[in-house]
């Protein structure tokens, strides 16, 4: 009798001391973290959607894109991570789902000075230790950017409200030990929640706890997840080793400075660690280049430094302009190979990017190039039966691009399936929602920053189509003024 009782008690203790993290359901995982769209209630994820989601997750994790739930993929799904989705925003209009990738965005009103309050503390550390860790975490961002932070004495007026909470805590459900460690809200919502069932004191220790706080504060400040593995904004991580000297990555620094400027004003003299990307030129572009290279052969928005932000690339002959989606040229024109190593040095007639797959497609005469943006390598080169002069992803149809065939003619276009990489349909403009087009442009762009607009380029100018009405809006505008920032006017439409 006595023996039975003691076995029962030790079993209970064992359960509480070494809780086994639940194995995640891969279907739920893909939906929760933005790798697959939620299917209508009552149906499951179909095989294709599942495989595509797995591939996208594998790309983010930098492991082979098999599309299958192999051991390494399953291990990655079960690793510790942030509760925020890696892609998508969840509540977007279905039609725009392909363009729903969230972009980094700062607090409104140019806010740079933040206050914080520890709303609900953990029993694992003293309250003083927790407040000191929040302060240290904030300092990682404040040291390299234009923000400042101080503790508030009042919960209600504080911008950032930190809580250690477990299971259901008002806005969502934490999953117990392992899996999701924390989550936070994007501007202007400053809620930051840490899962209090994690072993912050014993396993994560101060370093792991601060790393998590820095990551979540990154969300509060407007940063999304990064696909750069060493970045603090990468969605998952292991347990930091003893004595680990945690530092921000160049990717983190570049992105926070993009939102809030450097520590000494808009253009910092030198960040603590040089960013991995070239910084914005302070002066104007060479005016001769502005004119000579404003006839775009093709234009596309694509992430080249991690999925979290996308720049626009305008191809001109063998050169490329890298443009900020809001603010014009980021630097003087450069070669294709600088951003897309492995691509041939050719004039690219059209370009489009499927965010679902992470593949950039380019055409040069009748050759189609498929390029893996994450791995920076050419996947396939094949012949099409016609020359495409402009192309863009169909705003209403997933994994479908519209290829416009001839210059000067208005009769037909093709539908291209980005998964099979085949031309699947030949359509007449006159019988489609594109019937208002009376000539074929030489380049076309739908930017994630302006998802309701299609920009059609021809010569040194462009026109804008409102995708809510499928009609032109505004008149013809100059590429060099609006896209290259060769003059002050940046108003796009
Ligand atoms: Zn996160
Ligand atoms: Zn929460």
What does this structure look like?
By secondary structure, the protein is α+β, with helices and mostly antiparallel strands. The protein folds into 3 domains: 19-78, Muramoyl-pentapeptide Carboxypeptidase, domain 1; 108-260, Collagenase (Catalytic Domain); 288-482, 4 Propeller (Hemopexin), CATH 2.110.10.10. 22% of the residues lie in helices and 25% in strands. It contains 10 helices and 23 strands. The chain has helices at residues 2-17, 26-32, 47-60, 71-77, 127-144, 200-220, 250-260, 287-292, 336-339, 479-482, and strands at 81-82, 113-120, 148-151, 160-165, 180-184, 191-195, 298-302, 311-316, 319-324, 328-329, 334-335, 350-354, 359-364, 367-372, 377-383, 390-393, 400-404, 412-417, 422-428, 443-446, 453-458, 461-466, 471-478. The strands form 5 sheets. The protein has a 6-stranded mixed sheet with strand order 1-5-6-4-2-3, with helices on one face. Strands 7, 8, 9, 10 and 11 form a 5-stranded antiparallel sheet that branches. Helix 5 crosses helix 6. The longest helix has 21 residues, at 200-220. It is globular. The structure holds zinc ion (2 copies). One zinc ion binds next to helix 6. Ca(2+) 4 binds at residue 297. The active site is at residue 216. Residues 103-262 form the Peptidase metallopeptidase domain. Its cofactor is Zn(2+); Ca(2+). Ca(2+) 3 binds at residues 175-176, 195, 198.
